[in-house]
Amino acid sequence: MSAAERIRYSEVGSGWWPLSWGPLFAACGLVVELVTAGPTHPLQWGALAVLSVPPTLVWVRARRRYRSVLVTSRRLVVGGESLPVERIESVPESDGTDTGRVLGGRITVPRGTAPVPLLLRPDDGGRRRVLAWAADPEALRAALEPDRGGRAEPESSPEEPRGDRP
Questions:
Q1: Amino acid 3: pLDDT
Q2: I need a labelling partner for 116 at 20 to 30 A (CA). Which of 37, 42, 123, 128 fits?
Q3: Rounded distance, CA 166 to CA 164, Å?
């Protein structure tokens, strides 16, 4: 990302806190063994704490890569797919029956997110409907508004009288 790009919306797929699950579970297991009568296994609990981190790291990195959404002044990144915002023609309201190709290389919209339909201007001149997705679809829609192909027209022009003026 260049210095000219301004972040308008960002949604990470996962935080780093799941890396603590395995070590915390191992610490709880060791504490239970220490306060109860019987043998303790600190080496095994330590091994569990250490060995649980790498698979969790793979899981967290995959979620951060494939479940992240980013909108800058130049591009929309949904999952692993990047799209120039100049191609976004409009961001219509969702009517609940959204169809189209899901951005990010997914078959469906991820669980816990909602679809945000986009009408694109393809290179061949036709229109194409795709689905972006976000946990907060209204915030994503608001972040994409300044980049829509059809800019908002002013409420009234100087030559037209407004309804609240005599």
A1: 58
A2: 123
A3: 7
Tell me the whole-structure pTM to 2 decimals: 0.71
Asked if pLDDT for residue 96 goes beyond 90, the answer is no
Residues 51 and 83 both lie in one domain: no
The one-character DSSP state at 46 is: H
How far apart CA 148 and CA 146 sit, in angstroms, is 6
> For position 98, what pLDDT does the model report?
78
Look up the domain containing 126 and give its range.
68-147
Do 30 and 81 fall within a single domain?
no
The verdict on residue 125 lying in a domain is: yes
Task: Give the position of tokens 């909108």.
Answer: 71
Beta-bridge partners for 118: 130
d(CA 14, CA 9): 16
Which three-class secondary structure state does DSSP give residue 100? coil
| Mean per-residue pLDDT over the chain, rounded | 83
For 94-114, what is the mean pLDDT?
A: 86
Tell me how far CA of residue 126 lies from CA of 87, 93, 120, 132, in angstroms.
11, 20, 9, 19
